Amino acid sequence: MEFLGRKGGYVKIRGYRVELEEIAKVLQKGEHVNNAVVLEKNQNIYAFVEPENGVSLTEEYIFSICAASLTDYMIPKRVFVTVFPLNNNGKVDKRALSKLIEGASGCDTLERGTPLATDTEHLIGDVWKNLLGVSVVYKESDFFDIGGNSFKGAKLLVELRQRGYELSFSMLWKYPKAFELAGYLDQATSSGKMSLTKLPLERSSYPLTEIQRRMLLLEQQVPGSYNMSFKLVLATNICLEKLNIAIRQVLERHSVLCTSYLGFNSGTLRKDWVDNFTIERGDAESENWFTERPFDLENEPSLRALYVATKNELIVVVHHIAVDGWCVVKLVNELDKFYSSTQENEPSFLFQDYAFSREKDMDQTTTDEHVQFWVNQFDGSQDVPTLDMFHKRAACESRVEVVSLELDSELVEKMHVLTTTLQVSPFILYLSAYQILLSRYFSQSDVVIGIPVSLRDRAELVDMIGMFVNTVGMRLTLDEDMGVFDLLRGNNGRWKDSIKYQDTPLEKVVEALQLGKRPLFSTLFN
């Protein structure tokens, strides 16, 4: 006896009541579709489509019909385009169609997933469910295909560390499937955990990272361009003296904020700057001047603050050489805790420890291999024009504008269905749309786009104050004969390959490509 679904065509999928006949009717409305049948097996939906005589329909076309009209949980896991077998009564033989599911050699392993087995696999499955909001995780489930990204990956590192496992982002990219990651964690645990090395106490300076050196060079070229600022609305009974002490505690806690940059090789720790720190005072008219004023990175901390009495606001400005956007929330939380006299645990490692360890453990062979990957990616890119070649810039042209666009809920839902169906992240969808825009606007099929990436690739770095943002150049090509599905899948594959080498310093890539003064890219996507 074989169960072919509930009477009336109703099934439960991810807790939702789904009418299979409703999905079939949607498919039957497709152009050149002669008939459609939808079956459920093991909590998965499978669609069978019979094309009109002499017409060839692709699986991608059928999925596009589904994405335009069905919600996420109603999208079939697999589509079969076939001539329907008939039973003795001349009706569609659903038992014969059901056997196609069992014998589908091309069926994705995720669609017929193997249940989790080991304790580590179950632990990973539980963490992924909570982190990604998915209802089921199989051995073959891929973290990045079911909703994972760099931001959620950083959270995963913290979750696993709290459970006694050390994991780096590079290893997550290398072992993205649940069973692969479980095997790696089991092996890493048995062979000992990785650890950073503390900067020796007798040393008052530490080596700068490649990113810090880049920030220092850019600051010299365009002073004030890498200031980051945020505004805090204060309580009416705020005590400025107590707030000043709290900021001093933050500076003392994170030495990277009190580093003097005398040259491009090392930074000197200036603990004396902590005691001399004072909140500046000003009015609303001085805000712009205060936020845009260049830092003297040799003679002052990388953080300053302005109190505007008329608004009862605190303007905090930090330089990108010491922090990235990830740090802002951390700084605000610590400032609040120190002001409230809440005890904060001392961090195990500071940025100078990371920089010291990075230089000490730098593997030149690995670096050369990573650089060679990017050289291969950009082979022939010297012939690809950058966007600034199309418009001659004035020597001091500068204009900043923020344009916001709110997408309607219906479009967002359709995009969600599309990315879920193709198992690509929303980032890939938006990146591909930006690629199409640039290609059409500048009539270029080959474009290079800069993408900022986070190098917080291990649990100890997730809450560390410091600059951990590198920029990679993605070379993307657009073929006029290429469908949107192929474009998204191709870009997804290229991104997953490239991100494994995301820690390669941009300067080394540019140097290896011998571009001279020509930029590798002139547009960023974040």
From TrEMBL:
Gene3D superfamilies: 3.30.300.30, ACP-like, Chloramphenicol acetyltransferase-like domain, Nonribosomal peptide synthetase, condensation domain
A molecular function (GO) term: phosphopantetheine binding
Organism whose genome encodes this protein: Mucochytrium quahogii
CC per GO annotation: cytoplasm
GO biological process: amino acid activation for nonribosomal peptide biosynthetic process; secondary metabolite biosynthetic process
Domain of life, per lineage: Eukaryota
TM region(s), chain numbering: none
Boundaries of every Carrier domain copy: 115-189
Protein name per its UniProtKB record: Carrier domain-containing protein
